[in-house]
Amino acid sequence: MYCGKCGSKIDDDSLFCPVCGSEIKISGNSDNHENQQPKKNNCKKYLLIGIFLIVIIVVGVLYATVGLNTKKEKQITKIERADIPEFNQQKAQAVHKWNRCGIVDISGKKAVISDLQKIGNNIDKFNEYSNCIKELQDNKENYKLDEESYAKYVKALNQCQKAITDKKAQDTFDKYNKVETARTTLINADNKYIKDRVSMYQAIDMANAESSEKKAYKENLEKINNLVAAKDKNYKAIKKAFSKMDQTVYMYIDPENVLDISIQQVDASDFPKVKLYLNIQDENTGNVPSGLDDTSFYVLKKDATANYVKQKVKAISQLNEQEALKVDMVADVSGSMSGTPLSEAQMCMANFVNSMQFDAGDQVELTSFATGVRLEQEFTGDASSLIDEINDLVTGDMTSLYDALYTAVERVATQSGARCVIAFTDGNDNYSDCSVTDVVNVANRYHVPVFIIGIGSVDTTDLYTITNQTGGEYYNINAVNSMQEIYEKIYRMEKQLYMVEFEDGTGADINDQSDIKTGYKSVKYGGECNYTYTPNVLLSAGSATLYKDGPEAVVEEYLKNFDDAVNHSDFSLISNCLQKGSPIYTEQEKYVQRDISEQLDSYELTDVSYSDENNCVISTRETYYVQVSGEALQLMTQECKYSLVKENGNWFMTSFVDINVVSRIKQ
């Protein structure tokens, strides 16, 4: 047996342990003595097993926690890189839940990982939709057949694109679904459009057509039928085939409704590209049709052989929300407008300014008139600046209406795109140097419509003459506060114009007279008008140089530098344009030394006439602000003719052939 104290082996009959001396207590069962040490060893074994199991569990928990933490960090990095506010907010909530989980809360952490993965999936979805919208935007023109459905589709695309740009995920998902719906609707509408269009082509009577037209018609129709019959429709190819067919058959289409079409304005500032601004109304209802098909517009221009040739149409649009309108507002501040009338007029003008589409590029200039004409605010798209100037208007004495209209037309004519003059007056002109004829001539020269609002008992004869002969309209009201409605009516009317841009392919010069026919032909609508015009491009002093070489470039350089030469008494600024020793060289060398200030406002080269390859005469129309010492500031328009000669490959101005002062307007 063994000692119970030190564990040493002793004889069974020993009373004391020979090692430690402890008394040996004998139990009744000798087997217990034999098994005492093994029991102790078993306890140690179980303890070791328990410790081992605990270590395994702890290691397992730590391993699981580290793995989950890695997954969490990976998802968080993905979310942070996407930098989408609502996903960042969801991430913050998930991280908060994670931090509340205990170290052994594996299931809680797995739930957080699941939430983060859902956010990651939505990021993938957001990126996928972003790529899809970009592709749809790039290819949207291919589906531009049914105009109404196409406009709704483009609107849905733009709204979704804005949500993507703003990084609004849920809004993007919602808007994308609307894009899909709009696209499906558009495709269905396009298919109906195609079906109707093919039926129209098949019904056209080509009996009186030329043999070449009949052949082209047959070939085009066969190609269209093949494209339409294809299982996967190529809308872009179908649209192109329709356009080609239209060029063949447009003159043989009988429309259901007749359109009244007239040209209000012409903008040739980017010649040979020319913009026509068309008034288009249904002849029966007087309404302006919307959503007209771009491919159904056409322009014919008479060439050198007096034949009308179809021109290439580059762009079609309706002004509203798409094309800019430039307006010169002309305000009567004569003595009779003093007090309440001026206050009411200021309110109406301010409200009108606030209603304009400055985001679409609209610009306004403010001109006032009384004893003279005053430019209050140059063309701007800043509503607050305009309203400040409107509120600062003060009254004078006399009424220089015609001078103000002439000035406003000259000013707005230098602007590109659609433009007009809107004036109001409560009295008859009694102080202008310009006449009614002067106003009409300059407005027609530059294709600028003039609208006039007469207040009270105004002599309307001359005002009707100006508006009717310039493509504008006259309105008479009894009270100043009624102007608001008229302003809005004029603005709506101008914004309903259709812009048709074509490229002149006849080889004509910018100063040549043009005879054109333009119109619209489809099954539903049709109409045409004839128009004769000379481009007459009036350029502002600050505009880009139009002429790159030749005698025109020399005259343009001279005009652009002349006022600086005068104001700084620096003849060298223009001397390189003049032939040394010539009459104009001698005259202008003296002129720039005078006590005078000039500022070029606008200019136009109206004609170039060659006597031979080395000699020509260039005609111009020039407008200056002129300040002579001791006299009032004037806006002077003059028509000049300059003689030029070519020496050693270079052109030089030699003399004035003629100078005619067209107008002098007191400022």
TrEMBL record:
Keyword Kinase recorded: no
Per UniProt, the keywords (alphabetical) are: Coiled coil, Membrane, Transmembrane, Transmembrane helix
Q: Where are the transmembrane segments?
A: 46-66
Concerning InterPro entries, the annotation shows: TcaA_5th, VWF_A, vWFA_dom_sf, Zinc_ribbon_dom
The secretion signal range is: none
Gene3D superfamilies documented for this protein:
von Willebrand factor, type A domain
Residues covered by the VWFA domain: 326-490
Q: What is this protein called?
A: Mg-chelatase subunit ChlD
Q: Which organism is it from?
A: Dorea longicatena
